[in-house]
Amino acid sequence: LGGTGEAGEPAAALDTRGVPVTSSLAGRVARPRLPVGEVRVGGFGGPDALARWLAEHGVTAVVDATHPFAERISASASAACAAAGVALLRLERPGWSGRPGDRWTWVDDLAAAAGAIGQLGTRVLLTTGRQGLSAFSTLDDAWFLIRCIDPPEPPLPRRHELILDRGPYTIPGELGLIDRHGIDLVVTKDSGGELTVAKLDAARERKLPVIVVRRPARPGTETAADVAAAATWAFAHAG
Ligand code: NAP
């Protein structure tokens, strides 16, 4: 189950070892980076339908490599694998941790992030993705530079500019963006990973505050933190 920039890596690792692998994408991104091997696109139709799909395709192991904030598909995978008797591993890259010089405020969700903006800044680089931006739509006192991969749906904040981009990003690139737009606050989810971490390095360099949205809790599923461990696990569970 893919949905992150790195999710194609376990598929490649398994393909190299001759294990047949199908990657599943939600179909939200218009031009996704396609992993090697077979790819299917679109929702399954809930946990029961996913369980049927697993049985029909003779699947012996599922790696849930979806985004740390994609909660429904992970819950669906957990229920479906239990029902179908299929092994499940969660591949989740570690979250980001602060370093000396960081000015981070941790919050539980997007609504809390919106609530914290007023005290911290007025020109905001908003990088929480295209979903859930309605949480910021009533903040008329701030200006937002909204960056996401595909266009978000309204309602959006009244005063904003949109940048469609998918990274990976560099520190010089992020510093340039911050300086050009007079950014004084960064808002992000704790997505983790290397592809989008440069904004945090740039914010530290410019001494800017950052609002970081905590990951939702994911109880119960066996988890690997890196691709090599996930590929080894999947290889061992390949039928
Ligand atoms: P979500 O709330 O967990 O999932 C919503 C529905 O989309 C699921 O119930 C499922 O439909 C379908 N779906 C999600 N991932 C799928 C996959 N890999 N293969 C097939 N169907 C999938 O997820 P979301 O937050 O809307 O995110 C959608 C996708 O974007 C995910 O793959 C996620 O990894 C990726 N993504 C999310 C974020 C984020 O911040 N949420 C950021 C970057 C990337 P059915 O119930 O019909 O099976």
Short structural description:
The protein has 239 residues and is of the alpha/beta class. It is 31% helix and 21% strand.
What is the H/E order? HEEHEHEEHEEEHEHEEH
Q: Please describe the biggest sheet, giving its number of strands, its sense, and whether it closes into a barrel.
A: 6 strands, parallel
Structural class label: alpha/beta
The neighbouring-strand order within the major sheet is 5-10-9-6-7-8
Integer-rounded radius of gyration: 19 Å
Average pLDDT rating = 95
- Which small-molecule ligands are present, each listed once? NADP nicotinamide-adenine-dinucleotide phosphate
List the helices and strands and how they pair.
Blueprint: H1 8-16, E1 22-25, E2 38-41, H2 47-56, E3 61-64, H3 71-84, E4 87-91, E5 103-107, H4 110-120, E6 123-126, E7 143-148, E8 160-164, H5 171-181, E9 185-189, H6 198-205, E10 209-213, E11 223-224, H7 227-237
Parallel strand pairs: 1-2, 3-4, 4-11, 5-10, 6-7, 6-9, 7-8, 9-10
Helix pairs in contact: 1-7, 2-3, 5-6
